Amino acid sequence: xxxxxxxxxxxxxxxxxxxxxxxxxxxxxxxxxxxxxxxxxxxxxxxxxxxxxxxxxxxxxxxxxxxxxxxxxxxxxxxxxxxxxxxxxxxxxxxxxxxxxxxxxxxxxxxxxxxxxxxxxxxxxxxxxxxxxxxxxxxxxxxxxxxxxxxxxxxxxxxxxxxxxxxxxxxxxxxxxx
Length: 178
What we know:
Helix content is about 25%, strand content about 20%. It is built from four helices and eight strands; from the N terminus they run αββαββαβββαβ. It has one domain (about 5-65, about 75-165). The protein is of the alpha+beta class. A four-stranded antiparallel sheet has the order 1-5-6-7. Strands 3-4-2-8 form a four-stranded antiparallel sheet, sandwiched between helices. Residues about 20-35 have low confidence and may be disordered. A hairpin with a 5-residue loop joins β6 and β7 (about 140-145).
């Protein structure tokens, strides 16, 4: 793979990660019970349904990605995590029995049944009508980002966020059926 293509690929990956971070900062006004999802636009997920989330890692340089961050091929190196951080984070999630994806840009994906996410992060996952998956908390907050407070400090020191990717604003939107 040539350098220009690789840099373009990393920039696109980072832009998608930034979009996820921006969406994670938005919270719903809905109230969710830990036992089940309630609300007109939410439904419970089957415990055995496979789902994936993105693990976003801190940069080796200490620079933080935010909504105003412009990442280009000239500065992409400033936002990449260290190889050691990637390996440690991937090892943790592998040991927690998640399927761990390849490292791309600032993170990697984790995949497991809904029940594994709910058990690990002590949350309930709900699906929105547009297919987006959100996590709930005991205080009723609903968002794309999973809570990190139950993970070991050795992991949270490496991770910016673990987030479900918001669905695109086009294509199929009715996942609840007629």
